[in-house]
Amino acid sequence: MNAAPAEPFEEFRAKMFATGADEFAEFRSQPTTATSTSTLLSKPRQLMRRFLRLAPGPIQYARAAPVIEEAPHDELHVTLPLPGAHAEDVHVTLHAAELLVSNEVTHATRTITLPSAVLPDASAAFKDGKLSVTLHKCSSPLDNDMHSIMVR
């Protein structure tokens, strides 16, 4: 019976070396032949995807994609999974057609670009690890100020 790793890093290391293969070897070696620019540029993206797939806990969920749905009555519903967060630690700010979501505990911040301009009278709720924000669309932004949205 294997004992559970004491720290997230140990869990990450155990996952990374469980297969016995070095998942990152190709990134350590220098190319010996001419390599195209697109291949060189794709390497950092491949490396990050591979790292995030193996990474522990909060890192895996840090980039969960928001769901933006257009609803009747010119409303937008934005849902963003924030596992492990608590309502009192989540702050939502509206600026023109962008929603800024920050978590006070993890210091993570997300900027979500909305498909249209919205009114500053928005509501936000946090339940079961998901943030739900309801916004009202308008034809053009009313102002360029930042508006805090209270999370309930």
From TrEMBL:
<feature type="domain" description="ArsA HSP20-like">
    <location>
        <begin position="74"/>
        <end position="134"/>
    </location>
</feature>
<protein>
    <recommendedName>
        <fullName>ArsA HSP20-like domain-containing protein</fullName>
    </recommendedName>
</protein>
<dbReference type="InterPro" id="IPR040612">
    <property type="entry name" value="ArsA_HSP20-like"/>
</dbReference>
<dbReference type="InterPro" id="IPR008978">
    <property type="entry name" value="HSP20-like_chaperone"/>
</dbReference>
<dbReference type="Pfam" id="PF17886">
    <property type="entry name" value="ArsA_HSP20"/>
</dbReference>
